[in-house]
Amino acid sequence: MVSSWFCRSGSFAYLRVELGEFVAFIAAGNILLEYVIGGAAVARSWTSYFATLLNFRSDKFLLTAHGLADGYNQLDPIAVGVCFIICIIAVSSTKGSSRLNYIASIIHIVVILFIIVCGLIKSDTKNYTPFAPFGARGVFKASAVLFFAYVGFDAVSTLAEETKDPGRDIPIGLVGSMVITTTIYCLLAITLCLMQPYENIDANAPFSVAFKAVGWDWAQYVVAAGALKGMTSVLLVGAVGQARYLTHIARTHMMPPWFSYVDEKTGTPVNATTVMMGATAVIAFFTKLEILSNLLSISTLFIFSLVALSLLIRRYYVSGVTTNANRNKLIICILLILGSSIGTAAYWGLSEKGWIAYCVTLPVWFLATAGICIFIPRARSPKLWGVPLVPWLPSASIAINIFLLGSIDKDSFIRFGIWTAFLLAYYFFFGLHASYDTAKEFEKSKGWKNNIEEGNAASNGLDSKDAPIVPS
């Protein structure tokens, strides 16, 4: 029961239990931002592939607004239309959405296999020279943006209410889908780089343009059609997942409960879906793909770090069980892990050729992680399934995520800071009070129910301790 509750609410509930309501709200706000930005980016890519399907340049349907700032002046009306259609499908029926996704997924898999096989046929190993044209810094900068591809997996956890055995099915779905997606992503990247030199790759519709460049003009239509199918599926899954995520948050009253309304006929969260897809359409209309990808990567890496941190706390701290001495040791070790990781990332971003600081930050990280492993006893063990190699794996996740953050540009951090400031203002002026009032009402209601149970037990000659416990 507990595991299914965690699965239904996803990382929001996990962080809320382990790190508190405030951290969970900030994380939830960034997860919603991920979904909106990710959907906007996919919608704009949809337009680019649609243009190549009609044998135009990938930016053919973008409208230039000279009065707007650079990066926001390439307007995309087609992306808005696509978001509108996806919204209608998503609010109509969950089963209908699932059937459409099922059909689209089969077509998408066929097209992916076509790209890999036919692309390798037209491959040329000379295109891998130079192998790393931008050096190690280019690799890590690309790795930071690569997290763009891992947005949406959290949506799997929000669909647990519609699975028969969430404690088993959700972990299998998450891990399995990530392994398959990572493998396919690597194969596609290898194929693309073998087909074209890196400087000739089109950022908006890379595979369609690549097949046209190698002389297979007919293949660009197959690829474009398959890409449109795939991106439509991605948008639909994102619309379903992000709406349910917002619904879970609204049920805690940290967001207006209006978002938690579920239509009785369709069984879908109509208000949450409409608002989220509306925000997606607005951002897709104005914002350049590069800006979206960098901002999304910051948000994703931030969430990954928080989840890894909460895992350490969950395994090594239980209130009333962990001693004060062990709690203080854990706090010190976690602060050292965070401090050394931030120091490594900052030095990487500021120093082009230096290495002295790494001789300090990396050993500090290693010793802090070893300190948790050796000197702090585990307070809790997983019952159904759990992350292996704790504390090393979550500690490494924190270090790597923070390190990759150091490769993202300054302007993206400014945009992220503005969004975080908005979340803080909303939480302290509205969300905090609403969730507190809801919690107090819940406690009163629970006490009232328990009093009734005790009264019924007494009338039946039972001791109050034998009365049935009302689930909370």
Descriptive account of the structure:
Helix content is 72%, strand content 1%. It folds into two domains: 1-289, Amino acid/polyamine transporter I (Up-down Bundle), CATH 1.20.1740.10; 299-413, no CATH class. The model is unreliable at 1-9 and 447-472 (pLDDT under 50). The termini are close together. The chain has helices spanning 2-19, 21-53, 77-92, 94-121, 135-146, 154-158, 166-195, 206-213, 217-251, 270-286, 289-316, 324-350, 358-375, 392-405, 410-459, and strands at residues 63-64, 74-75. It contains 15 helices and two strands. Belongs to the amino acid-polyamine-organocation (APC) superfamily. Cationic amino acid transporter (CAT) (TC 2.A.3.3) family. InterPro entries: AA/rel_permease1 (IPR002293), CAT_C (IPR029485). The chain crosses the membrane at residues 21-43, 77-93, 100-122, 142-160, 172-198, 218-246, 267-286, 298-318, 330-349, 355-377, 389-408, 414-436. One of its GO terms (molecular function) is L-glutamate transmembrane transporter activity.
